[in-house]
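FAQ: What does a ligand-bound record look like?

Like this one, built around pyridoxal-5'-phosphate:
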Amino acid sequence: MKKFYNFAVGPVTIDEDILKIGAEQIPYFRTEEFSCLIKENEQLVLKALNAPKNSRVVFITGSGTASMEAAVVNIFNFNDKVLVVKGGSFGARFSQLCDIYNISHTDINLEMGHQITEQDLQPFENKGYTGFLVNINETSTGVLYNHKLITDFCKRNKLKLVVDAISSFLADKFNMEEMNACAVIAGSQKAMALHPGLSFIALNEQGIEIVKENKKNGFIKTLYFDLENALLNGERGQTPFTPAVSILIQLNKQFNKLNKEGFDKIIERTNNIATDFRNRIKNFPFKITSQSLSNAVTPLSPLDKNVSAHKIFEILKDEYNIFVCPNGGEYKNILFRVGHIGSLTIKDNDVLFEALNDLLKRKII
Ligand SMILES: *Cc1c(COP(=O)(O)O)cnc(C)c1O
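The answer part, i.e. the structure of the complex:
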C-alpha cells in the first residue's frame, strides 16, 4: 500500500526493487567492478539520448541544476554571446547562470504556455551569437519546445547548442545526434525515477573539444564542475570525487530494466498515461495552458478565477494523500501541474480522478 500518490514532476514514485537497493550497504567504489558499472551507465545514457558516436557522459553528484551550472561554465566563456529561451523558471535559471558567470546573453522571453516560433528567433539570425541555451521541456509551464526549429536555427547560425532535457529525458522522443547538441543534461529524479542527487551531461565530439579548449585557456574556474577533469577520470570509469554511489547502482539496475523493455516502449507508456489523463480532465473545470505538451506533465489552470490552484494542491495533499505539483511566484494561484512520470499506471489516474470528482461534489473546484 502506498502512503501517498505522487503526481509531482520529480522526485517521483520509485519502483520497489530499486528502492530496496537504497537500503543496502555501499561498496567501495575505486574498483574494477564499479568502473564497469559507470562505463555501462555511460553507454545506456548515450543510447537513450540517441547520441552520436564518440560522445561521452559525465556524472555529477548534484541535482539537475548542478549540471546546468557545469554545462554553462564549461561550454561558454566571456567571449560568447548566448541566446536563452526563457519561457518559465528553468529558462530564468539559465539566464541567471549566465549573469553569475558574466556570459553575455539575450533572453528570448515567451509568454506562459507558448511554443517558440520562427518569429521569436528571426530577430537573432546572423547577429553574431555563438550559443543557445534551452530547457527542451520548460517544466514550470509544461511546454515542450520545437526540436526541429531550434536545431535548424542553431545549425544555420553555427551556435553551440546546450539542451537541458532533464524533464523530457525518457518521457519524450529525443535525438541528440539529429539536434546536433554539444551538451545534453538529464538527471535522476524525473522519468529515470530514482532518488534526487545525481545528474549527468552528455557531450558530443564538439562539446568535448570545447571543454578541452576552455580548460587549456584557463576559462574553467571551478573545481567540482571541471568537466575536463571529469572526462579524464571517466575514461577509466571513475569520477574525480566520491559519486552518489547508491544512486549510480540504482541507475544501473533501473536503466537495464528500461533498456530491456525498450526506451521507445517506456516513452509510449508515459504517453498513454498522459493521454488518458488529458482525455478525462476535459470533463473538469480546468484549462490546459500549454500549446505544446510533453508526455511528462500537464499544466492546468482553474477556469473559475475564484478557485486557487495552490489551494487545490494543498487540499489534495492534506485530505487525499495526493501530490500534484504547485507553481510558485506569479502563477501560484492560477497554475498547478500533474506529472505522468515515475512508477505510475492508469489505475493511479483513477485515484486522482476520484479525488477530483469529490472536489467537484464539495464545490471546491
Ligand atoms: C527538474 C528540472 C531541473 C533540475 O532541478 P533541480 O531542482 O536542480 O533538480 C532542471 N531543469 C528542468 C527543466 C527540470 O525539470
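Follow-up question: can I read anything off the structure? Yes, for example: Residues 263-281 form the longest helix (19 residues).
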